[in-house]
Design brief:
heterodimer, A: 6-stranded mixed β-sheet, 10 strands, 0% helix, B: mainly beta, 59% strand
Chain lengths: 107, 129
């Protein structure tokens, strides 16, 4: 099975900061990589699909990049409402479609 | 409104069984693959199971293989998870999610990109004596 490793596990940043979260796959997954945001007590929400495509309704300060094994989620200017945990997930080939362990962003 | 609503969670003793349901609305349920995901208290997301549109193709995480059974009823627009031989470590919030996606053709190969674009609110399962 493909393992997904995120870093950092947590970070603290200020409003307006540029924040970067990385996700590494244990083998190449091309661009079959999605990012989700989860706020406490809520279900996950799709942010980025197929590595770099912004889901409808998601603010443009969020962006994704990468291909192969290394991927990045960037928040260009951190806002208070971005406080959440972010997860990557691969959907390469057949399941299991594993998630990364999560990266908690605190303001 | 496109939505998924889980139900069936609750308190169950170790070794017991529970059946979760996920009711869909306002989209063509039969046209989408579906998955179950869980989240133990204070932990991350764990992918559990996948079912194809017709139910003919099914996959499970090793942690639940042989104990959990995913199924769907397209006539009822519903997804299910039968959970047997429950353990304390199965205590979690269980989410159903829709696999959206699109196809692409590149280099002589057809690809299909999946992403979980609709999630339910979750149902809580507690396994304890």
């Amino acid at each position: 099975d493909i393992q997904m490793t995120q870093s950092p596990s947590s970070l603290s940043a200020s409003v307006g900061d540029r924040v970067t979260i990385t996700c590494r796959a244990s083998q190449t997954i091309s661009n079959f990589l999605n990012w989700y945001q989860q706020k406490p007590g809520k279900a996950p929400k799709l942010l980025i699909y197929v590595a770099s495509n912004l889901q409808s309704g998601v603010p443009s300060r969020f962006s994704g990049s990468g291909s192969g094994t290394d991927f990045t989620l960037t928040i260009s200017s951190l806002q208070p409402e971005d406080s959440a945990t972010y997860y990557c997930q691969h959907t390469y080939s057949t399941p299991p479609w594993t998630f990364g362990q999560g990266s908690k962003v605190e303001i | 409104e496109v939505q998924l609503v889980e139900s069936g969670g609750g308190l169950v003793q170790p070794g017991g069984s529970l059946r979760l349901s996920c009711a869909s609305s306002d989209f063509l349920f039969s046209g989408h693959e579906m998955i179950w995901v869980r989240q133990a208290p204070g932990q991350g997301l764990e992918w559990l199971s996948y079912i194809s549109t017709t139910g003919n193709n099914i996959h499970y995480a090793d942690s639940v293989k042989g104990r959990f059974i995913i199924s769907r009823d397209n006539a009822r627009n519903s997804l299910y998870l039968q959970m047997n031989s429950l353990r304390a470590e199965d205590t979690a919030i269980y989410y159903c999610a829709r696999a959206g996606g699109y196809g692409d053709f590149s280099g002589g190969t057809h690809y299909y990109y999946y992403y979980m674009d609709v999630w339910g609110q979750g149902t809580t399962v507690t396994v304890s004596s």
